[in-house]
């Protein structure tokens, strides 16, 4: 189903009430920011109905029972439609899946060594790591971020993939594909390097550090500059923070889930909160200056 821009309004216009009305009516929609305007996108087949609805209730009216002739409002956007508006999110997940297949979920050491933070070679039963400065001197700068694509086990891959799809789409819809890719690379760089500093030469990987970065970004951004795209259910935020504390306690490793990259998780969350702070303050200032 094709989405069209039904409204283009200045950033100073408060769309939150109207967006809540659309949510209550289960109308598929998304809001993006383009060229200094906020743009409301809806399926093409109901665009005229939504435009008419905005003319009648620009501030929304959640307490009034409405008889609106919008057709198919209870249909959620299909997967193909979501992909069309989440290309960067899908690209990262596609690369992650390809790496999972090529590395046999971390079992193929000959292929995984090209993506790990430190290059290594296997000698007998031991792994010998190449110093990071040597790899960087050889031009292997990709190692600073590619560990995010490595996953060890199907559960590791499935959980990280699910949360990246959920959080990545929110940022891409609000700030665009380029910003999502930039934030993903930044969070990967910071979480990978911090994990290396704390754990020393070791094998680690996964999107978890990036995920906590995306979580922190959405969380703080939403506090400073509320937007429907970044409104996370309270239970999601609490669950991920509790999980972080459980991992830090060592309980997860004790019950046999392997070593957890806690330094990557914590540093990812902190850098995400920092970018959310900067982005939220900038966006709020931009709105108030209009």
TrEMBL record:
Location relative to the cell = Membrane
* Keyword Transmembrane helix recorded: yes
Coiled-coil ranges per the record? none
Question: What UniProt keywords are attached to this protein's entry?
Answer: Cell inner membrane, Cell membrane, Hydrolase, Membrane, Protease, Transmembrane, Transmembrane helix
Report TM segments.
88-106, 141-165, 177-198, 204-224, 236-257, 263-282
Note whether Transferase occurs among the keywords: no
Rhomboid protease N-terminal domain location is 1-66
| Gene Ontology cellular component annotations, sorted alphabetically | membrane
Q: How does it sit in the membrane?
A: Multi-pass membrane protein
Gene Ontology terms describing biological process: proteolysis
The family database entries (InterPro entries) matched by this protein are listed as: NRho, NRho_sf, Peptidase_S54_rhomboid_dom, Rhomboid-like_sf
Q: Which GO terms describe its molecular function?
A: serine-type endopeptidase activity
Q: Please report the name of this protein according to its UniProt entry.
A: GlpG protein
- Please report the organism this UniProt entry assigns to the protein: Pseudomonas lini
């Amino acid at each position: 189903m094709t989405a069209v821009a039904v409204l283009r309004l200045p950033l100073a216009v408060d769309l939150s009430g109207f967006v809540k009305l659309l949510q209550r009516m289960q109308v598929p929609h998304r809001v993006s920011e383009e060229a200094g305007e906020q743009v409301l996108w809806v399926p093409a087949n109901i665009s005229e109905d939504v435009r008419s609805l905005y003319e009648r209730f620009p501030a929304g009216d959640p307490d009034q029972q409405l008889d609106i002739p919008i057709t198919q409002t209870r249909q959620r956007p299909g997967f193909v439609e979501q992909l069309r508006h989440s290309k960067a999110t899908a690209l990262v997940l596609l690369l992650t899946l390809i790496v999972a297949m090529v590395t046999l979920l971390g079992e193929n050491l000959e292929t995984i060594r090209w993506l790990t933070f430190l290059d290594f070679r296997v000698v007998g039963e031991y792994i010998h790591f190449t110093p990071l400065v040597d790899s960087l001197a050889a031009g292997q700068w990709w190692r600073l971020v590619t560990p995010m694509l490595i996953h060890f086990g199907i559960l590791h891959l499935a959980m990280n993939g699910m949360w990246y799809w959920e959080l990545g789409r929110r940022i891409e819809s609000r700030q665009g594909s380029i910003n999502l890719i930039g934030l993903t690379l930044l969070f990967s760089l910071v979480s990978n390097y911090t994990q290396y500093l704390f754990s020393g030469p070791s094998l680690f990987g996964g999107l978890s550090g990036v995920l906590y970065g995306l979580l922190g970004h959405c969380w703080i951004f939403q506090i400073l500059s509320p937007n429907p795209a970044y409104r996370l259910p309270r239970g999601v935020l609490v669950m991920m923070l509790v999980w972080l504390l459980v991992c830090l306690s060592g309980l997860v490793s004790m019950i046999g889930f392997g070593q957890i990259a806690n330094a990557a998780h914590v540093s990812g969350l902190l850098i995400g909160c920092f970018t959310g702070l900067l982005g939220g303050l900038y966006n709020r200032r931009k709105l108030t200056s209009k």
